[in-house]
Amino acid sequence: MSDATRALSEGVKDLGALAVYRPDFGKQGLRLSAFLPGEALSRAAQFLREKGFTLLDVSTAEFQEGFLVTYHFDSFAEPCRLALRVLLEDKAKPTVPSVYPIFQGAEWHERESYDFFGVIFEGNPNLVPLLLPHDLPGPPPLRKKPDALASFAALGLFGEAEWISPGWPYAPAAAAPDAGEGAPQ
């Protein structure tokens, strides 16, 4: 891991990350992946902006455990593609802070997730359907029936653990934290 990536890992951890991983770059194209509680997302996005990162995209996927909202970032100065991930466990009203105040380009990405999954991005100034009719009946079209959902924990999104918060319920069994003091040995 480069010194820059290590510094990013520590910075995101200090902002309240639940877990920080080094994914398999060949499979995911990421140098770093951090799982955050929703309340830490804005601080982490601001931290990345101050480090020269730009937002590439925002996507949402539905799992048994809830909605996983993923934010991909990269830097032009020193390429280091990374992901911030927030798991929204409240499926009735999935809500996360908008990163629009930090990265205005997030507005359309967030609207698309709202359109197809019903995720509410608090602070998005134009949270209306982007692609679908405003009066579309029924639930958001990409929501799945419970029996059709995969487990997020079983998908292999993790990689090598840099740090895992004690008690984080989605830590892979083989990567039990060592009292929160860094990556397991």
Mind explaining what this structure looks like?
By secondary structure, the chain is an alpha/beta fold. The protein has a single domain (3-175), classed as 2-Layer Sandwich (Beta Polymerase, domain 2), CATH 3.30.460. The protein has four helices and eight strands, in the order αβαβαββββαββ. The strands form two sheets. The chain has a six-stranded mixed beta sheet. It has a two-stranded parallel sheet with strand order 6-7. Strand 3 and strand 4 form a beta hairpin. The chain is globular. Mean pLDDT is 87; it is low at 175-185.
For the structure shown, list the relevant keywords.
single chain, 185 residues, alpha/beta, Beta Polymerase, domain 2, 6-stranded mixed β-sheet, two-stranded parallel sheet, globular, disordered C terminus
Write a short abstract of this structure.
This protein is α/β, with parallel strands linked by helices and 185 residues long. It has helices at 3-14, 25-28, 41-50, 106-117, and strands at residues 19-22, 32-36, 53-63, 66-75, 82-88, 95-97, 120-122, 160-164.
Total number of β-strand segments? 8
End-to-end Cα distance, whole Å, is 16 Å
The portion of residues assigned to helices is 10-25%
Mean pLDDT: 87
In the residues, how many domains can be counted? 1
How big a fraction of the residues is strand?
Answer: 25-35%
Low-confidence spans: pLDDT under 50, at least 5 residues? 175-185
Note the quaternary state here: single chain
CATH class: Alpha Beta
CATH architecture: 2-Layer Sandwich
State the fourth-level CATH superfamily: NADH:ubiquinone oxidoreductase Nqo5 subunit
Order of helices and strands: HEHEHEEEEHEE
Mass-distribution shape:
globular
Query: What structural class results from the helix and strand content?
Result: alpha/beta
Q: How do the strands line up in the largest sheet? A: 3-4-5-2-1-8
Q: What Rg do the Cα atoms give? A: 16 Å
Largest sheet: 6 strands, mixed
